[in-house]
Amino acid sequence: MKSTAVPDGRADVPARGDVLEAIGRLFGRPLGSEMDVLKLVNAGAPASTSVRIARELGFPTNYIASMQTKRRRLRHSPQRLSADETQQLVGIARVYGLACELFQDEHAARRWLHRPAQFLPGGGPITPSKLATYDSGVRLLEDRIVRTAHGMF
Fold first, then answer.
1. Under 8 Å CB-to-CB from 139, ≥6 apart: which residues?
2. Is omega for the bond preceding 78 within 30 degrees of 0, making it cis?
3. What DSSP assignment string belongs to 30-72?
4. Residue 86: its pLDDT value, please?
5. pTM score, two decimals?
6. Which of the four pLDDT bands, split at 50, 70 and 90, describes residue 141?
7. Phi and psi for 80 in degrees, rounded to 5?
8. 43 CB contacts (<8 Å, ≥6 apart)?
9. % residues pLDDT > 90 (the chain)
10. How far apart are CA 112 and CA 48, in angstroms?
11. Measuring CA to CA, how many Å separate 49 from each of 31, 34, 110, 144, 150?
12. What is the DSSP code (8-state) at residue 152?
């Protein structure tokens, strides 16, 4: 995965294409643009994708939808996740891709996803993986990762 150089010599920032590559790898399909991501979300990912991504990233398999819901969908193949559930998975995958770029190490990125930290003023510690299940949490984490890459803590 590549990074883009920052003109003033500060730390490299993850390249947008590399994050799409990471999302695509987790979903098992190439994604060349945000339009491809939008098409994926609108179509809904196969229900089995949620279980596979959860296992790969170390999440409980019921993180996005209950296992009962997934079992029902998997029995009636080829059931798909809803657009909202797929969007949650994309958010987690996006944050994971950015973290991989920041840390330059997939294992470190996975550890970071599960390490509680103080992200919300006045709130208790929360894991990035939990924040990433919300659209606003994904944006907050994207901003935090980019700021860290730029050395702005």
1. none
2. yes
3. ---SHHHHHHHHHH--BHHHHHHHHHHHT--TTSSS-HHHHHH
4. 92
5. 0.79
6. very high
7. -125, 155
8. 80, 86
9. 53
10. 25
11. 15, 19, 18, 27, 33
12. -
Looking at residue 70, its pLDDT comes to 53
d(CA 79, CA 7): 47
CB crowding 81-104: b at 16 or more within 10 Å, else e:
beeebbbbbbbbbbbbbbbbbbbe
pLDDT of 65 strictly over 70: no
Would you state the structure tokens that stand for residue 24, as one six-digit string? Answer: 């695509």
- Percent helix, percent strand, percent coil in the chain, to nearest 5: 60, 5, 35
124 CB-contact burial (10 Å; exposed 0-12 / middle 13-18 / buried 19+): exposed
Cα(129)–Cα(112) distance, rounded to whole angstroms? 9
Reported as a single tens digit per residue, the pLDDT across 73-109 is 556 556 888 898 899 999 999 999 999 999 999 999 9
